Amino acid sequence: MTQLQDSLTGWIKAGALGLAVAAPFAVAAQAQTYPDPGETLDWTIAFGPGGGNDIMARTIVEILNTYDLYPGDITVENRAGGSGAVGWGYLFGQAGSGYGISTTSGSFVTTPLQADTPWEPADFTPVALLATDDLVLVVNGSSDIQDIGQFIEYAQSNPVTIAGTGTVNVDFIVPTLFAQAAGFEFEYVSFNSMADQTTALLSQSVDAMVGNPGEILGLIDSGDLRALVYSGASTPEALGDVPTMGEVGYEIGVSMPRGLILPPDAPAEAQAFWIETMQQVVETPEWAEYIRSNTLTPTVLYGEEFRTFLTNTQNGFAEVLRSVGAIQ
Amino acid sequence: MEIFSDLVMGLSYAVTPINLAYLLIGAMVGMIVGVIPGFGPSAGLAILLPLTFGMDPIGAIMMLAAIYYGSMYGGTITSILLNTPGESATVASTFDGYPLAKKGRAGPALVMQAVASFVGGTVGVILITILAPMFSQVSRSFGPPEYFLLAMMGMLTLLVMIGSNWKLGVISALIGFALGTVGVDLETGQSRYTFGSAELIGGIYFIPIAIGLFGLGELFYAFYSQIHKSASGSLVEYGREQRFWPTAQDFLSTRWTMVRGSILGFVVGVIPGAGATIASLMAYSTERSLSKTPENFGQGEMAGLVAPETANNAASSGAMIPLLTLGIPGSASTAVLLAAFLLWGLRPGPLFMEQNPELAWGMIASMYLGNIILLAINIFAIPLFVQIIKVPYRILGPCVVVICLLGTFTVHASFVETWLMFAAGVVGFFMRLYGFSPAALVLALVLGPLAEEALRQTLTISRGSFGIFLDRPASLWIIGVTIALVVLLPLMGRIGAGAGRAEKAGG
């Protein structure tokens, strides 16, 4: 069994190494004690291959290697399970080390709210918030509603149904806060996946839905769906002139953090090294292309500001979810 | 005709030496991930996805698509030989596939499953080629009310699975429904019976349960009945003549089964979210209710193997329609394909086939070739696989435990699921011993959450009114078909009931 299992992990590693070409030893560009080129950087991806978290981690590793930003070897390993609890639990267990690292996504905030994880987001040593996942509100292309103004007006007199993925999720929080701000009522209809909710909207079962624009750009282009408003700080280029929630006067300030973390109590020089390194990463054209093709909002915060962001996000989520009884 | 010029254009992109090599790799990998229990196509796809960075998208998509439909071929092999479904869509293939092997017909069963898979896959691709635009309308008309009715139709399958001892069958199904309530409640977000475990947030996945109930349960039962001590010591009595090829009778008696299975499988596959598992189960129960000899189902009836096999392959073709025409993935596997499109900078959606004809038609054309390759691989590989059942059971038994364990653990690397698999194995043994229905349990576990979620979504949308089911044309259609089936089923059931009861009375 071990042998077969090893060969399976072997495939995963082969995939990882194909990208993470071992960086040359001891370039010694950095004069600090960290990083020691003899130490291997243990990069944990808390989800399986192919997901958003995986793509982000592999993109960063590729950039680090292309620009020789990290002097030692990097091993990338997918440690999926329990909505991220397994992978981030593994990183939590490396407390005090500067050679464990991981990327975060929405589950980093929501999983500890739902399960008894031994860790909280604020326990980890924050490096940087690099981007946020934000949502677009869309209606069926055959709907009479042409823009967000008409939508709010319609919703104020006729309660609407809005579809999203899951309840302990930004998909539920964003329309809830937006509706409170804009003064309308709606029924939230929760689905298991973006595919299910898109099907429901196309079959005219629901009035509108929220979702990450990436997967539905094709349907927006063809006119089958109509984008009304975007929840992020700035609208991605691909969505054209769709306004943000802030631009229509109802800023809600909630989004899913895509960032980088080290184990709890990592050495200060490790944190400083990674902050400085990520400042270089976000300036590369490869990173710009990643942001563009995944329709993310480039929101960058470093160090303690990122920790504050995580705490605020989690508190905001907990408050809304507690008020509807989703969590205790 | 335009379709044929598109197809020829697709072929011209697909048939290059390097692309054919990718297709072959995809078909082989698909077979392998299918054979390993639990390690389904979506996991295989996800692992190979990073390797397609920087590949030519046409070759890459040909390879990834072949992994998907290739796994439908491979998944049946362990269903037939070890009663352990390779992945969820081949659970229904254990119902008659394993009894066939026990009767000494493992060879013909394996050949027939390959032929059935080929027919299902090929009919599916032909339907994609001709009818893709029309069927995209089907995917567009399905919302929560229709999914609920579809799940109800699937529940009719339960009536078939429950078998002659209805009390034990109902108890089995209720256990399945109860297990289906575990996990986060989709509508309210509250955790149900997760005991704070992060691994149970997503609910009880049915693969560990199916592997435990069928694979381990059968194994325990085999030891209980002391097969390992018997004269030949092998799992099944293998006929002396070792007849490898199916008889003409096998083909003749299942020709309409293949046609029905292909069409049913394709239509169900087109509906996003329904997928190959439900298609195969529905094909099995439809075939049983139409059969003149329903009492033979479960005892090693060839039609009972051919029906789910054609259906799951046709469904995997059908699932390409929402992906290609709407950019909506109908299953976990097509979701990985969608991720691949996005990775390569493509924009799936209604304009996808117009904007990327060489990619879309290249993939469709490659599916014709891929199915031929897979049929050939299967026919060559079957003599090898048949050797498995000649291995003495005292050696094969422990290997099955390892395969079950490995298959369960590789899915989510979850210890909770691994323990669930062992528990399901013990439960499966006792179910087998006392005549309960593991199949009904698994089916209830699949359909229960689907029905619950769809009904609650429907009633949220309609604000509590059941009238919504009568307002929508698509849902009216499904109600009509269901009523037709309900009228047919009792008629069929009455014919077979007497014989079945007499036979099973001993338990």
TrEMBL record, chain A:
One Pfam family, short name: TctC
Species of provenance: Roseicyclus persicicus
Keyword annotations: Signal
Gene3D superfamilies: Bordetella uptake gene, domain 1, Periplasmic binding protein-like II
Superkingdom of the organism of origin: Bacteria
Family from the record: Belongs to the UPF0065 (bug) family.
Name of the protein in its database record: Tripartite tricarboxylate transporter substrate binding protein
SUPFAM superfamilies membership: Periplasmic binding protein-like II
Signal sequence, start to end: 1-28
Entry keyword annotation includes Ribonucleoprotein: no
Keyword match Signal: yes
TrEMBL record, chain B:
Keyword DNA-binding set for record: no
Residue ranges annotated for the DUF112 domain, each copy included: 20-443
Annotated TM spans: 20-40, 47-69, 110-135, 147-180, 200-224, 263-284, 326-346, 367-389, 395-415, 422-447, 474-492
Assigned keywords, A-Z: Membrane, Transmembrane, Transmembrane helix
Top-level lineage group: Bacteria
Protein's recorded name: Tripartite tricarboxylate transporter permease
Organism (species): Roseicyclus persicicus
